[in-house]
Amino acid sequence: MATPLSDTPLSLMKIAVVGLGTMGTGIAEVLVQAGREVVGIDIGEAQVARALAALESSTARSVERGRLTGTERTEALARLRTSTDLAAAADADLVIEVVPESYETKHQIFRELDGVVRPEAILATGTNALSVTRLAADSARPERVLGLHFFNPAPAMKLVEVVSSVLTAPQVVAAVTDLALALGKEPVAVGDRPGFVADGLLFGYLNQAAAMYESRYASREDIDAAMRLGCGLPMGPLALLDLIGIDTARTVLDAMYAESRDRLHAPAPILKQLSEAGLTGRKSGRGFYTYEAPGSATVVPDPLTPAADGAGVPGREVRSVGVAGSGTMASGIAEVFAKAGYDVVLAARSEEKAGAAKARIGKSLARSVDKGRLTAEAAAQTLERITPAGSYDAFADVDLAVEAVAEDLEVKRQLFQSLDKVCKPGAVLATTTSSLPVVACARATSRPQDVIGMHFFNPAPAMKLVEVVRTVLTADDVHATVHEVCRKVRKHAVDCGDRAGFIVNALLFPYLNNAVKMVEEHYATLDDIDAAMRLGGGYPMGPFELLDVVGLDVSLAIEKVLHREFRDPGLAPAPLLEHLVAAGCLGRKTGRGFREYARR
């Protein structure tokens, strides 16, 4: 019979951690440093010894870095005892299990705990993939069972997902939430579904990256560099899969797919192949990358490592560059080339627009001077290299023409027809499109072999990434030319084929779309989802912050292109996004998107 819960606040001072792997050891460290009495339990003496050694080492580093005093370390370690017997949890107020992701293993732990712990004890599972409700239903006290999902490394990561099932008592949720706050964590309340918020969004993205690599669309290095440099992520998706464990990722995705039946969650076959071959990532010494040794973070060259730059077909000489357009992207690209010493012709539909674009560059350079990033002399020289023009006829002598006009295929096709007539033979013609087919621009000319995509990211002077998009018609020396130019302007070029979204948008926008679907389904709030992805995923901005910055209309347009190209139902734009765009709520630029903003 379930034990009635009183209204008296539950005190969680004695805590048992079951499973002393990396996560369990990290949780134990957080708890003892916060003044809790902890018993760490694992079935193996060797694992217990490793956990103690790891805890002693990590707390010693904290003392060296000034985060703990020697006395605080001694007191914290004294609050931890260990055992290989689950009966050691008998007097615990809270038990947190962090054993391997297996229903059978976790069920066994919970059944044994039912016969060990006090009736008023709370049982928490650290799962990130399995159903908390299913685990609770088999417990003698389902109202006292919930999920408590820490993120790795637990001492450093601020996010904790507090997962309620339909059976969980509110007082239990409140007690565990208070504990998370006392530990200095930021708890996010979520319901019970595989992956919860952070992993639910993260693993779909990781899965798509694995599938992208498996299709040989882009190299592992380029996929990872694109997401680091294009989105400001601390790690690329394939390196992150290696860190998490490819077998673990496959388990999470299997659980997500079993519930959602969304193809985006169906594990990419390469995850199964690597897992079954024992190539599970860093822990085995090899996954998507090869490592110095099992457990090492040091990547070593292997047969898939790209050759050093400089080999292959030589590029064409580029001394002068034409930039077509008068918006923020065009002026940013012109600034990038001029700073690198190129003579730049900045052409727009009128002299006035071109002059205004050059004036915008002047202001940008002045800000760089004010911030000490550029000398006044260098800024003046950069501005002098830019010649504004009211006609594309001014591109007659440029070696490279880069268009940055409106993201409209017919507008771009007409522009490429003009460039074909104006530009000299041998000039490279580049489009900065982020979502349209580069080959359609190429086919508008009589020299499709000279056309390539150069997708800069906004703001172009600050963002280091350029996606180099080669069509089936692009000449080898044109591809080589663009890579040489990217090196000279100090941008990191990544190669990809001519398909919707290229690398970054093809991986980013399905993730954003899935976040919108979570809100539509009332699974979590905007604030909780944004917090979860910043704190648990290392994203510089939460998905709704980013959507409002990018513009909901721009985001919807890209998502429609992706859906049209790949025909995947899971890529269909979320209705909520379509409704907001229809209502004119486009984000920061209109003062209202997913959130409201003060009008300037």
- What is the CATH superfamily label of the largest domain? NAD(P)-binding Rossmann-like Domain
Care to count the β-strands?
A: 18
Return the CATH class of the largest domain: Alpha Beta
- Give the spatial strand order of the biggest sheet: 3-2-1-4-5-6-7-8
CATH topology of the largest domain: Rossmann fold
- How far the N terminus sits from the C terminus, by CA atoms, comes to 61 Å
- Low-confidence segments: none
User: What portion of the residues fall into strands of 2 or more residues?
Assistant: 5-15%
**How much is the average pLDDT?**
94
Molecular shape: elongated
Q: With helices defined by DSSP (H or I, 4 residues minimum), what is the helix count?
A: 22
Structural class: alpha/beta
The total number of structural domains is 4
Q: Mind telling me the C-alpha Rg? A: 28 Å
- Measured as a percent range, the helix fraction is 40-55%
Break the fold down into its secondary structure elements and pairings.
Layout (H helix, E strand, L loop, with lengths): L13 E5 L3 H12 L3 E5 L3 H20 L5 H9 L1 E4 L10 E4 L5 H12 L7 E4 L6 H6 L7 E6 L8 E5 L6 H13 L3 E5 L7 H17 L5 H12 L5 H8 L1 H15 L8 H8 L13 E2 L7 E2 L19 E5 L3 H12 L3 E5 L3 H20 L5 H9 L1 E4 L10 E4 L5 H14 L5 E4 L6 H5 L8 E6 L8 E6 L5 H13 L3 E6 L6 H17 L5 H12 L5 H8 L1 H15 L8 H8 L18
Parallel strand pairs: 1-2, 1-4, 2-3, 4-5, 5-6, 7-8, 11-12, 11-14, 12-13, 14-15, 15-16, 17-18
Antiparallel strand pairs: 6-7, 9-10, 16-17
GO biological process, one term: fatty acid beta-oxidation
InterPro entries: 3-OHacyl-CoA_DH_NAD-bd (IPR006176), 3HC_DH_C (IPR006108), 6-PGluconate_DH-like_C_sf (IPR008927), 6PGD_dom2 (IPR013328), NAD(P)-bd_dom_sf (IPR036291)
GO molecular function: 3-hydroxybutyryl-CoA dehydrogenase activity; NAD+ binding
